[in-house]
Fold this sequence. Notes:
CATH class: Mainly Alpha
Mean pLDDT: 84
Helix content: over 70%
Number of strands: 0
Amino acid sequence: MSAAAILALGGLAALIVGLVLYERTRGGARELGLIAVLVAAATAGRIAFAAIPSAQPVTAIAIVTGIALGPRAGAAVGAGAALLSNTFLGQGPWTPWQMLLWGLAGASGGWLAPLLRRSRIALMAFGGAWGLVFGAGMDVWQLAAFGPALTLPAFIAVHARAVPFDLVHALTNVILLGVAGFPLIALLDRSARRMRGRWLPLEKAE
Length: 206
């Protein structure tokens, strides 16, 4: 089996494992309802920004969800928004990889929540970094799926052409998280307290 096939199958397997683990956890109807609303909001944002190449508000919304509601919710919103938005923008073999990458963006926001809650600058930098990581991940998928070869020189050649689009994605994340990141986290914190009956720490942005 080729390296490209192994990579493609590995990404699909990771997505399936994540979905199975999510189904085995207890979230409650209220949390599922809130996640559905956030998936719809991320989908609407992606469609609204469709005229701007690579402007992807899904990333910022998934990260904020992960920070406020936890890695599981962030992953669900990222993966769910990819699947739902592609129903309008076009499904294809790229959908599972978008689900995986956006799911990881949301989950990583939850894993690093204590750090990202402390500083608006850290949150903005994290979102910008994910814009670049997402683009690089999709370039790897493109090479794995369509070739010509999954090698470092081929990746550099493909990725060099995509850098301007990745920078737009990163800049969109920086702006959205800088302007609305902490207000959205505070709003979701209040929703989490009502759903789960517990207090979540609020950190003042620097």
